[in-house]
Design a protein that fits this description.
The strands form two sheets. The chain has an eight-stranded mixed beta sheet. α2 packs across α3. The protein is 30% helix and 22% strand. It contains ten helices and eleven strands. 43% of the residues are buried. It has a single domain, classed as Rossmann fold (3-Layer(aba) Sandwich). The longest helix has 14 residues, at 71-84. The chain is an alpha/beta fold. It is globular. Bound molecules: S-adenosylmethionine (SAM).
Amino acid sequence: MNAKNLACPIDTEQLVLDGKQLRCINGHTFDLARQGYVNLLPVQHKRSKHPGDSKEMVMARQRFLDTGVYAPLAELLSDLLHKAIAGLQHASCLDAGCGEGYYLAHVLSALRAKKTDATMNLIGLDISKEAIIGAAKRHKEVSWVVGTNRQPPLLPASVDIILCVFGFHSFQGFNKILPVGGKLILVEPGPDHLQQLRQATYAQLYKTELSKLDEAFARGFKLVDEQVLRFNTPPLTSETLKDLLLMTPHFFRATQQGRETVAKLDNVSLTVDVVFRTLEKTADDNLLKPLSPSVV
Ligand SMILES: C[S@@+](CC[C@H](N)C(=O)[O-])C[C@H]1O[C@@H](n2cnc3c(N)ncnc32)[C@H](O)[C@@H]1O
């Protein structure tokens, strides 16, 4: 566990390594799991017994991402991160909702290949224990943590860049752990993302909407960059299409008939349409006026 900026989820004090445990000044301890991660999600921060993605979803995502179909996303993410850390000697980067760790592992290899000057502290955080167990197998140098984006277990202003890839974002949680000038890279589906899959799944095709940034702006973020990545995948096999459906929210929204239609698809090329938005923190949240209920 390389990260020095982890915080106790109970009292927010710094956690320090003490043998095979992380310990805070008030004596709260958290064991390092033998698989190479730490669980910093106390029961009072959970909204269900097994929050986040299930083992089945994690494995489907791992199989899908390992086909390399989304490699262009990982490459653009690495380029944006490389740009964001320019000039820093040491950079702390959090992947918030990292899933089974594909993007962080790719980013680490890409930064090595680019021979960046900054020493990196990489942290992968996900509320799903199954996802983090999968992620810990990908890379030993990343600090893998079970925890929530709502109350990220990190010290205030201790993270330079947050990546949130198809993840659940919390502008309040993110504001706390970024310093002023820190960056948040949000990666989200654009309007035509996977339209062929959605067409097969739903009776009516709707356009995916990007999340509104009103709350982010109210909490002191500004938008500094926006890029769209669009391409068509090579024809995908039936197995890969099923994995893709299983790893997205469409699986749960789909009707039985929709799932059966997808199960019959084979050799289909999909449109990938993904938006990368970089936000910069310009002010501390606690300096701002209380938010109106309409943006929370
Ligand atoms: C759609 S997946 C994306 C995973 C990964 N970023 C990727 O693109 O491969 C969303 C992830 O967010 C996690 N998640 C959901 N709610 C969360 C929360 N409150 N805090 C942290 N992670 C959360 C899920 O367990 C899941 O792994």
